[in-house]
Amino acid sequence: MENAPLSQLEQRLIAHLQVIYPNLDTKDLADKCLAMFHLDPMTESPRPHRNLWDQSDIMLITYADTLRQKDEAPLETLHKFVKNKLADCISAVHLLPFFPYSSDDGFSVMDYTTVNPSCGRWEHIVNLSKDFKVMGDLVINHCSSRSLWFENFKAGVHPGANFFYEADPNADLSAVVRPRTSPLLREVQTQNGEKHVWCTFSHDQIDLNFERPEVLLEFLRIIHLYLKKGIRWFRLDAVAFLWKVPGTSCINLPQTHEIIRLLRLMIEHYAPDSVIITETNIPNQENLTYFGNANEAHLIYNFSLPPLLINSLVTGNCSHLKQWLMSMPPAQQGTTYLNFLASHDGIGLRPTEGLLSEWELETLINTMKRFGGKISSRTTPQGEAKPYEINISLWNAFSGSALHGPDKWQFARFLCAAGVMMALEGVPAFYIHSLFGTENDLERVNNTGHFRSINRHIWDMEDLNHVLNTPTHHQKVFQSITKLTQIRRAQPAFHPNATQYILHMGENLFAFWRQSLDRRQSLFAVYNMTDQPQHFNLSELNLIATDTWTDLVSEQVYEDHLGKVTLMPYQFVWLANKKGKVKTS
Q: Where in the chain is the domain with CATH 2.60.40.1180?
């Protein structure tokens, strides 16, 4: 009896597996993948190039336990806060790793299938997913040295005996690209003798070996669990380092891209509304490759945006920001950018390579140091220590200018940056501390000994409610940002895939044009990037004379289409010919 013909899903899955594992029986492995994912081989493929987002999508990035209330699970506290205070402002919540961990504030995962009891339970994740889209972290490159898998590796038993990447300490690994300064290999005593395991990040974070199909199958099991718990957006953490070939850079290798395509194939067949985001903090042109041909990441992080925008606002010169954005390709339908200014990590400097000169980078670093920032380094293939990221809270990053130091324009500069991020092509994402204007947490740095702790403050809800309900900069930031998000979510011209065109208005004014997908709404965003008043003529914007143009931020109507506009330091306008209706509770 002849074998039944393969379904389209099986054919595509086998094609990916043949690239990743050319020496294995990929039909058998495909069957195991489908079984592990509980996926029917006859499942119909989702339509390609679908936009699974619109202008109403704004993401919140947060740890599960950033907000703490006495006698309440932090995940429950977070859910209440987001539902009561941010329901009109955001659509999605990115929960940073909420699993038991041994270091790196969650990114050294000990057990991928359990919610850290100090944060809550799976039911809290499920409940949150009923009100908001939830993005979970798939810490796929490495896991904790204290995990059961690594204990099994040392004992030579399964699962785990073959889960970790080993290397010969005498091999030439000088070409390996690293984000850290620690030694790449860690010596480990096992039941089978001394071994050297690969540690891209730290010696508590042991790299997994995807050359072993058992590792791939285990992660398919984990992803399936997350899908069942309501997670639909997946952040692939540090995925650029996934596949190793000694003698190469061991970053962005073809097999890594193929694994991402395979994961996307499985995930979107199981849940067609799911989204994959790759976290690849690398130079801009390398980052762009993770879109694939609209068959890898749905979204990629716009890693060059934070350093370039901060640089523009502290120097008063937007030339590099403008040049970079003009070089960025419009995302294909079904893909888009994730725009952010702050995150649980620092402000990455690798994405400035080829965009800022050494002198400009040094000026930016020194300015951030002046505002209380710390600098983390990496080791280059030549063995040199090189600045890798700036660790600073976003509020402190905008304390002043590079030329004059701290000044009175901190809030205006901070809001201007948020206004840029929200208006650009892509989905905006706010790190929770950017909603509050949280300052550098130097005490936490001293307690942990890690620079990244500077922007990982823990808020007691009583303290947070106090500062949000009294005249503080925290209240001012929160009220202003939430108002802007509500305006933004109502404008079709701010659809993540709406047309974007950068305008030329000199180095002090940053400006661009957005047009809705149906071409009905046009919107001109103009920002004063300096600490001095700036002027421009509306004639420079080429406004349609028959339309009425209103600044959505101030609600001022501009009837004279040839008139002169003065923007105060860091002021900006969103000039639109139509106003979307703002939803408020």
A: 499-576
